[in-house]
Amino acid sequence: MTTNTIQAINELATTQFNFLQKVGELNLKTAEALRLKQGELLKGYLDFGSQYAEFGLKRQVLGIEQKPINELLSAWGEKWQTHWRETAELFKAYHDEFNATAEASFRAAQAGTTQLIEAGKQAATEATEKTKAAVESATAEVIDLGKTAAAQASETVKKVANKA
Asked: Which of 17, 76, 99, 110 is deepest in the core (most CB within 10 A)?
């Protein structure tokens, strides 16, 4: 293998390793963001549950009107929608970043593959030229041996003809 071929293979392997590393980092970052979002949502559920229970107890004991519970439900509904909208935005950001990383990696791999093909062409051309030179050299030797053999045969025939 030529140095160019080895270098192209090394660059392709490095590109793929970098891609996998970036995807791993992206997965970790997204998983952490989602974990935080889930924590926020769980805390919201707990807060809502305790406020709802508190309201229920006050209503039974003090006879409080229905209006505060509707406000509590409305506020929780808005928080819940906001949470899921933000979660969807996290997934979209992940999707966009993954696509950008993959496209960059694929472009680099394509360039590396092109470089590898060019190195292969160069190696094939060099090998073809070496083979051509070897065949031409061998052909020249065969021709020289043929001429020498013909000359020796001619000499032998002349000697035999002269003796006869």
From this structure: 76
Within 10 A of 119 (CB to CB), how many other CB atoms are there?
19
The three-point CA angle 23-89-27 to 5° equals 20
Distance between CA atoms of residues 54 and 57, nearest Å: 5
- For tokens 């519970």, what's the residue? 69
pLDDT digits (tens, 9 = 90+) for 95-142: 999 999 999 888 888 888 888 888 878 888 888 899 999 999 999 999
Other Cβ atoms less than 10 A from the Cβ of 15: the count is 20
Residue linked to tokens 């030179």: 133
Query: Tokens 């000359």 label which residue?
Result: 151
Rounded Cα distance between 93 and 95, Å, is 5
Question: Could you tell me the sign of the dihedral formed by the alpha carbons of 72, 75, 81, 87, in that order?
Answer: negative
Which one is predicted more confidently, 107 or 64?
107
d(CA 109, CA 15): 7
The residue assigned the tokens 């949470």 is: 83
Q: How confident is the model at residue 29 (pLDDT cuts 50, 70, 90)?
A: very high
The two structure tokens encoding residue 117: 């093909």
Round to whole Å and give the CA distance between 38 and 34: 6
Phi-psi region of 86 (alpha: psi -120 to 50; beta: other; left: phi over 0): alpha
